[in-house]
Amino acid sequence: MREIELLVTLKIPDVTALTAANTIRRRLGYAERLLALKRADYYRLELETETEQAACDLVTDLAQRTNHFVNPNKHAFTVRTARQRLTPPSTNGAFEVEVLITDAEGDRAPDLEQALASDRIAQGRVKAVHVGVLWTLTLRADSPQEAVELARDIAITRARDRGLLANPHFQSVQIG
Does the predicted TM-score (pTM) go above 0.90? Predict the structure, then answer.
């Protein structure tokens, strides 16, 4: 079983991410720490394929040739094999931390799985589809650990002025 991730983003400016970034900077007080904020629809597909490359090719075909994931008029997509949660620091001490938000009761997409089961491109090779929202925070921090802690403070809502991206009462959070 191979697991491949598909990230779907907007080609135009993402007003949801822009509004969230503005709120995090102005209302939550992270103006000096939050350098950038990006959002993507996240899909993790479990596939039966011979090789990892065949799995990546299958997901690319599904994204390009069907309307299950991507509208080519407004979306761009990235296919990758493994989540890279933290990148090395850049020259200005910035770290990218990925925050995956999923439904606490389960992240499976049964309707999408059923549609892919009968899709001629998938040919029954898609065994499961997991969905969520992937936020990528570019943070100014002194260490990777500090960046992860900052991302946790920014992401998980605990009060009106603490956290914004996930409600812990009904959402699960995975932080790099």
Answer: yes
Per DSSP, 146 falls in state H
* CA atoms of 70 and 10, how far apart (whole Å): 10
Tell me the per-residue pLDDT of 91-123, one tens digit each, with 9 for 90 and over: 578 999 999 999 999 999 999 999 999 899 998
Tokens coding 83: 């989540």
Residues with Cβ within 8 Å of residue 5, at least 6 apart in sequence = 42, 43, 44, 45, 79, 80, 81, 82, 83
- Delimit the domains of the chain by residue range: 2-175
Superfamily of structural domain 2-175: Phosphoribosylformylglycinamidine synthase subunit PurS (3.30.1280.10)
Residue 123, CA distances (Å) to 34, 48, 61, 109, 168 in order: 43, 10, 12, 18, 37
Give the three-class secondary structure for 25. Answer: helix
Long-range Cβ contact pairs of 109-117 (< 8 A, separation 24 or more): 109/43, 112/68, 115/68, 116/62, 116/68
pLDDT tens digits along 122-150: 989 999 999 999 999 999 999 999 999 99
Residue 157 three-state SS: coil
